[in-house]
Amino acid sequence: MASSETLTSQEYIQHHLTNLTLGFHPEHGLGFAHSSADAAAMGFWAINVDTLFFSILLGWLFARLFKGVAERVTAGVPGAAQNFVEWIVDFVEENVRGSFSGRNAMVAPLALTIFVWVFLMNFMDLIPVDLIPHLFVQLMAVFGADPHHVYLKVVPTTDPNATFGMALMVFILVLYYSVKMKGVGGFLGELTLQPFGKWGMPANLILEGISLLSKPVSLALRLFGNMYAGEMIFILIALLYGGGILLAGTAGVLQFVWAVFHVLIITLQAFIFMVLTIVYLDMAHQEHH
Amino acid sequence: MNINLTLFAQMITFAVFVWFCMKFIWPPIVKALADRKAKIAEGLAAAERGHQEKALGEQRALELMKEAKTKAADIIGQAQKRATEILEEAKTDARDEGSRLVAAAQAEIDRETNRAREELRERVTVLAMTAAEKILQREINADAHQAIVEDFAKQL
User: Would you list which residues of chain B are within 8 Å, Cβ to Cβ, of chain A?
Assistant: First the structure.
């Protein structure tokens, strides 16, 4: 518990769950939100700086590592980095080949980007919950900021903006390719003419519409929910450290166990996001589903 | 935890990374993987070819060896035959030369013998004459008894 002396447990948790939000406050003008109420008051026209910063940083890391390998890639004996990258690329390619029956040069790079990027963003969850926020608070204190109002969430995928952002892009692609492959009529027909035939059109539309809209929502919420819950448990474990030697020892064990388990979860969630994206796009390319 | 502008920022970020991956990362890596696959297939095919060629080469070598052995045996046979011939020739030559030498020696011996005999005969004639002169003193006429002496000398 970094700044625990003056914080209650509730405040500590709340503090950890608040993004660093930059926006226009109706009363204070342009600036960082000093509380979640401030952030809410800023409405839509605000930016979660931490989410953006870490997601872009991690995406940049991904791009840099893979680009570096792609530049020096050789069909001969691969180096360690190339071997590692090839391993991931091979894995993604295999999944795409297994699930995607159409021809589209974009699906595999999309899947690779999703898998690695989401994995990296999820991976931030394994860094002790207070480490980076605490360092950030120290840094901001130099500029005279009140430590209680310096927020930082290091795991972008615990911000629904990030997960919905990706899911919406995938959804847009699904719509785009549905229309491109089947034509507007074909796509509308798919939405309205099955499963009950043309006389059950309203029922068809409701069923198919829900199934269509549930794709991005489930995609985004599954990832968000898993990572948010995992982060929450790390925060709760972190709270135990303040409760004396016995509890702190228990917390250490718990944190280790949960982190080990979480390694599985973050990989699995990245994998699920990737596979579902491939499957949704495959459906968009096919005439019937 | 509010949905705000970050949503769109994330969408754009996502799109940019996907575009970047699609443009600069995926193609070269996948191409390298495909190239390596082709290379490995090529290598395996080459190994297979090499295997076959090796078997062929071995067979050919075996044939060559057999041929060489036959040739060598032929050559050895011929050489042996020739050697026997040369030996026979040498033997015949030696025998001829030997008999020739023996004949020549024999002739020489005969000639020497005859010469010695002639000389002896002359000496004996002279000796006999001298001896007879001494025995008979003046009574003997060399001319008168020439025939007797010669007859005697012939009997030697």
Answer: 1-11, 13-15, 17-18, 20-22, 24-26, 28-33, 35-36, 38-39
Residue A147 falls inside a structural domain: no
C-alpha closest to that of A133 among A229, A3, A8, A41: A3
Enumerate the β-bridge partners of residue A23. Answer: A31, A46
Residue A33 lies in a domain: no
Q: Please indicate if any CB of chain B lies within 8 Å of the CB of A52.
A: yes
Cβ distance of A90 and B8 shorter than 8 Å: no
Q: Is residue A167 part of a domain?
A: yes
- Interface touch A166/B14, C-beta < 8 Å: yes
For residue A105, the enclosing domain spans 56-128+156-285
Q: Are A192 and A204 in contact (CB under 8 A)?
A: yes
Per-residue pLDDT tens digits for B34-59: 999 999 999 999 999 999 999 999 99
| A159 neighbourhood in chain B, CB within 8 Å | 1, 6
pTM value is 0.76
Cβ–Cβ of B11/A39 closer than 8 Å?
no
User: In chain A, what is the greatest distance between 2 CA atoms, to the nearest angstrom?
Assistant: 70
Q: Is residue A2 part of a domain?
A: no
Angle at the Cα of A276 from the Cα atoms of A283 and A59, rounded to 5 degrees = 125
Kindly report, residue by residue over A75-118, the tens digit of the pLDDT: 888 889 999 999 999 999 999 999 998 888 899 999 999 999 99
Which ipTM score applies to this complex?
0.88
